[in-house]
Amino acid sequence: MKRFLILLIAYSLSGISVKSVAQNRDSLLVLSQEEFLNIVRTFHPVARQANLLVDRAKAELISSRAGFDPTFYMSADRKTFNGKNYFNWIHPELRIPTWYGIEINAGVENNLGDLLNSQETPGKSSYLGISVPLAKNLVMDKRRAVLMQAKVFREQSKADRLIMLNDLLFDASYSYWNWAKEYMVFRVLEETIEANEIRYGLVKLSYRQGDKPAIDTTEALAQLQLIQLARNETWLRFRNAGLELSNYMWQANDSPFYMPSLVIPDTAWSVVKIVNQTLPVLDTLLIVAATNHPKLQSYDFKLQMLDIDRKLKFQELLPVFNVRYNFLNSGYNVTEGASWRFYENNYKFGFDFGLPLRLSRGRGDYKAAKIKINETNLDLSQTRLAIDNKVKYYFNELAMLQTQVGIAEENFLNYQRLFKGEEMRFKLGEGSLFLLNVREIKLLESRQKLLELKSKFYTSYQGLRWSTGQLR
Hints:
Blueprint: H1 2-10, H2 18-23, E1 29-31, H3 33-43, H4 45-64, E2 71-81, E3 84-97, E4 103-112, E5 123-133, H5 142-208, H6 214-246, E6 263-265, H7 282-292, H8 294-314, E7 320-330, H9 340-345, E8 347-354, H10 360-427, H11 433-467
Parallel strand pairs: 1-6
Antiparallel strand pairs: 2-3, 3-4, 4-5, 5-7, 7-8
Helix pairs in contact: 3-5, 4-5, 5-6, 5-8, 5-11, 7-10, 8-10, 10-11
């Protein structure tokens, strides 16, 4: 991240020209792929949104726990009319919901007045009670389902965050390697221009001394101009690739960062012997993708939430049968003087029973819940197949590119030998400048092709990591 601060300082120098880049190469700032991806992970809005997704899931989990929070209720009422005290009662109560649908409640009452309801107990009393569902909502109810789904959603949000990060880093890697390739092609053309400028000067000198015909100076100048045109076009592509790369470069204050010209990609990759690198094992990659790919994990969490919903919908097929029991006592101490006989006489008991005769809603909701699970399983199977095929695709591409790079390296070496041989013949006066220029163009084409294949190899390697869900 320290290098990113250096990039900010270099931003003021972004108006640098093609020639100044070539002449001040020692002052350039190198940005490696990993440094670039670290900037993307830290500052890019999509990466930060992915982190907020997890934070939001955690907030929803906290909210879902409200269904199990103890609740204190307080009610009071008083009526006085024509100097007569009809009633005056106070009723504080504490309700404690538990996991298996059981609810514990405790409270005290103080009922006074001349015209109290006959069902009310005059004076001070207390109670301790319990309510138990014996059918519907015993195994699952809405508040338990909400909490369980919130816990699963928290884990799913982590997988969704990795999905977003995986896609973002793959797109960023693609832009980086396009930028790196264009820079290396520019460097090659710059080196070629330097050699052609020297050759053009020598040809002009030989012409003045009568050793070369005038047409050779035109031939040398035309070759130099041709490469200069190619160099300028490549410079434009490199700068535009830098602008594309800037789409992924953001600062800590959420403002965009535009890539200055003094920042260049790492060039060590251009001399790496790719043919000597060991490729990963396909079967291992497929196992890693099947077990760790965040998209498959997200589907698993989605199925867990749908299964919770299915269990909740099944409760609509069960009858309502809730049993309530309250232990009563005089005064505010509900356990004072308690005995077995006391429990037999001082209590309040009741139950609720209900059953829809056709169960239309329960049958429809339960069937719809199972259909959603089947649909998601089909999506999961299709996604799993697509991921397997993407892993195989990038693996095959990576293996073929490794072979192609080996051939391209041999091809480049052969054209290099032909060019050096022709250059030696030209210096000895035995060869023609035209043939030397043709050899040089072929050498340039072979080197550009080699750089293109190498950059594709590294892009494909990132694609292989992306297909297994390992770009994080």
